[in-house]
Amino acid sequence: MQNAIFQYKALEPGALKEIYITLNGKPRWVCPKTLYSRLWNCDEREWMGDEFEASFQIFEDEVWCYILDYRSGHLTLKFERESFISDAKQALKSFCEDILTNNATRYLSSEGAQKMIEGLQSMTIPQNYSQLFSADVKVEKFTFEFTKEYSCDTEFVIGFGERCYRSDFSDWSNELDIIRYELEGLVLRRGGEVNLHNEDSPNILRMKSIYVHDTIDDSCVKIDDSCVKIDDSCVKMTLYPDEFHYEPIMFGYCKRREVIEKLYRGFMELFSRDTSWFDEDYKDVNWDEFRTNAISQLKSQIIEDYLKS
Predict the structure, then answer these.
(1) Domain boundaries in the chain?
(2) Tens digit of pLDDT per residue, the chain (309 long)?
(3) Strand extents, DSSP E, 134-267
(4) CA-to-CA distance for 2 and 136, rounded, in angstroms?
(5) Nearest to 122 by CA among 108, 107, 141
């Protein structure tokens, strides 16, 4: 078994420092934002860097790395778990510290680098993604709130825990009935995604159902001769910021009901407030009529029944 080699370095004097992994004995550039996202969504294969794609399977003692190398074909590499994770986190931390100290690279803003460091500190890497235990899951608060009155581009805040950012909800590029459909999907399919467009670039919020196992007393459910309690109220959330933000992806374990309620109530409350935008920019449009139509497009008996249950 070979050791994982993620290093933040310059290949020659005077060159920019980058993150590299050694493949077939040669250093290959790794995109920092993609490496960061792969630690969270490890089983999804994605473009990783210098002419290769990768996905990971993270086990108790090992990490299996499945690589599609555009130069040499498919590779399957095995790494020691602790070496792989610690090297990846340290390389990302060094990358972020270089941005904060020297403004040295071009992939993240200083604010984005700070959020990546905070994300690395809070990130837990389960030993088995098919069976999560409470020690693997840190439930965080989900934040979603419109901070301005309705306009052509309405500002909102979104994020997990202390990691949040601001974006705009564009009037012309979002369809409210589609947003209602996506929110209903979070209830009916117990997962899915919601797209909130800033101009023509979406903020993509993905929800994935998980089941958290805990060993408790003899009155609980028996599974594989183990006594466990199964909690399905938590969900795995991934947030992809729009292209106008130099941010890493954001992630967190949240309560399903809180996510759905804050999204749904946030939109309903937006159209219950007054706005001066129509008076100033669209004098021929009646705001009361517009928001009545908006609420009728958003209102969902499916969601409201779920939140009442």
Answers:
(1) 6-122, 132-308
(2) 454 479 999 999 988 899 999 888 889 999 999 999 888 877 677 899 999 999 888 888 899 999 999 988 899 999 999 899 999 999 999 999 999 998 766 778 888 899 899 889 888 777 666 677 777 788 899 999 999 999 889 999 999 988 899 999 999 999 999 999 999 999 999 889 999 999 999 999 999 988 887 755 444 444 444 545 556 788 999 999 999 887 888 988 999 999 999 999 999 999 988 887 765 656 667 778 888 999 999 999 999 999 998
(3) 142-146, 153-160, 163-170, 192-198, 201-209, 212-215, 221-223, 226-231, 234-240, 250-255
(4) 26
(5) 141
pTM tops 0.90, yes or no: no
Asked if residue 6 lies in contact with residue 20, where contact means CB atoms within 8 angstroms, the answer is: yes
Residue with tokens 């590499």: 77
H helical segments located in 1-144:
32-40, 81-102, 110-122
Q: Are 188 and 180 in contact (CB under 8 A)?
A: no
Alpha-carbon distance of 29 to 126, in angstroms, equals 26
- Burial of residue 14, with CB atoms counted within 10 A of its CB: 0-12 exposed, 13-18 middle, 19 or more buried: exposed
Cβ atoms of residues 240 and 249 within 8 Å: yes
**How far, in Å, CA of 103 to CA of 96, rounded?**
9
Alpha carbons 244 and 112: distance in angstroms, whole number:
12
Using CA atoms, how far apart are residues 270 and 267, in angstroms rounded to an integer? 5
**CB burial of residue 107 (10 Å; 0-12, 13-18, 19+):** middle
